[in-house]
Amino acid sequence: MKTFIPGLSRRDLFTIGLVILEVVIFSIVSENFLNSSNLRSVLRNATELSLVSIGMTIVILMGGIDISVGSALGVVAIIVGWLIQAEVHPLIIGLVAILVGTTIGFVNGSLITFGRIPDIIATLGMSNILRAAVFGMLGGRWITGLPPVFSPLVQGQYFGIPASIFVIFIFYFVFWALLTFLPIGRHIYATGNNVEAAKLSGIDVRKTRIVGYMLLGSLVGFSSLLYVGRLGSVEITVGIDLPISAIAAVVIGGASVFGGRGSIVGTLAGVFFMAFMKNGLLLLGIPSLWERAVIGFLIIFSVGIDLLINKHQAIAKFLHLKTRQSRVGEA
Amino acid sequence: MIERFFKQSLPALLSNRVYFLIALLIIVLIFLSLISPYFLNTRTILDILRMGTVLLLLSIGQTLVILAGGAGIDLSVGAMLSLSGVFLGILSRTGVDIWVAALLTILFGGLLGSINGFTVAIWGLPPLIGTLGSMWAFGALALVITNGVPISNFPREFAFIGDGRILGIPTQILLVALPVFVIIYFFLNWSFLGRWVYLIGVNETAAKFSGIPVTRVRFSLYTLNGILAGIGAVVMASWLMAARPDVGSGMELQSITVTVLGGTNIFGGFGSLLGTLLAVLIVTLVASGLQLAGINAIWQLAVLGFILLGAVSINQLIYSLKAKQSGLSA
Description:
CATH class of chain A: Mainly Alpha
Largest sheet of chain B: 2 strands, antiparallel
Shape of chain B: globular
Number of helices of chain A: 12
Largest sheet of chain A: 2 strands, antiparallel
Number of domains of chain A: 1
Helix content of chain B: over 70%
Radius of gyration of chain B: 20 Å
Structural class of chain B: mainly alpha
CATH topology of chain A: ABC transporter involved in vitamin B12 uptake, BtuC
Helix content of chain A: over 70%
Oligomer: heterodimer
Strand content of chain A: under 5%
Order of helices and strands of chain A: HHHHHEEHHHHHHH
Distance between the termini of chain B: 26 Å
Strand order of the largest sheet of chain A: 1-2
Strand content of chain B: under 5%
Structural class of chain A: mainly alpha
Largest interface: A-B, 42 and 44 residues
């Protein structure tokens, strides 16, 4: 029940402490780490990851997973690039991006609920179909030299504060409120906690699942605007590291991969942990290929350690249940 | 009559997966011989099937891991293939005898597999998370160690496995694919070990209570998967005469697709190696057919994705129909 309280859980504080520790270590090791221009670029580069991670949190809260977000972002980014080249009004482009993203999410959600395909299989299949679409749509040539239509969303600065901070905090606030105060938020937690119990208490589990994937899709759609605004181009490897980074951010942020437990605040801390780590490795001159290996190990360890901690709780719960049952038996 | 066909005959026909796959295989063969007149002779077909050897090895392992249930899946097979290949390349570069190096590579693959076995079966991570993590870790290590550059300094006689022939049959089929398949088929279908795998997949709790060491069986299956990836790495390196660090990328999708197309239930407990073998033949032939038809290799990704989604949906439909027929509501 801790997760329903609007505030910080102990697990959130742990992740935040981890980020602070990381910042301290990197500022000691590298003198270029703690200055405003570097921190700004860290933030800028982490904007898409932070938004996609919100959606990934929602999906993981429901006990699901989505590894198609990278290819989905690629497909939407290419469409955005085309529309910018056709000089369509930015507002319409934005709407189209969100709509296409949401549609992809709807397809994923439908495959999972109506096709009864496990989340990992459905999104693995989709991921490859969409990746092929990226290759096909680009046709071997990158989209480059796009005018900076969406750059103000990431590059700009308002009241002396980088635009990406605004974007990140607005989205996190909105989705935090949605998960905490709106019925759909409780339905998401309930679905992840115990599907049968959620069904019995009248929650439309199928609808909740599909809505969850659609929310993730819409965030991916919006992130593609940020991607195009940040780079001004779409390359063939677009979004290839995105799913794994988002999953890592979410599990470092304390969400349980079994569903039902996790928080938006934890995920935000997890995103910052990932962003600082990528930057720190870069500053230390470690080849970027290592980054993937580190992310792989991080996922295994953070889930594994969570598991060790929760095993004790699970065992305690189980024993408690046992004693209660035997008491009932005696009576 | 029509209603009966849809309610009884069709599910029965489809649910006998082996017949269904053989029919599909014949359709693919007819289609391919229409595309190219040079297609239908033994030598061409054997040459195409040679390409399927590595996929068959990985898919056998994938089938066993998925069969044993508990949401079992191994996303890291491709990365293990790449990293084992790199290991072989480095050993060969340092002057180790190539056949000794090959043996060590197979053991190294087993070591990688046992890491998955440890995180998933013993530590209790969900298989998809544990193997997703190791997929990235192993795949990146292969790239980091080689700096992305293939290692190619294998002695000439090493090409024997990947490129040689015995009595006209490619060596990798005769000496690798066939024996491995037969041995594992025997174990799965005629030994208590195979019954253990199926029982664990059908009902883990019942398996535990009947004294089956569930954890140890699952650990062994992930290790076996690594060993098969190690064998695959040797075959691949011998065939290309180079150890490419990205050689296994995408193999996880292929092996999972083949496994579910072969009729293995993604939730474990049901499936057969014969189905997997037929599915490997079909997927390999379709891939070469797309090549013959001049379709870009990129679209194979999409085709595989569609086959994967389609095959799982059909499986789910069949299993729910079967459950209804036998009076158990799904």
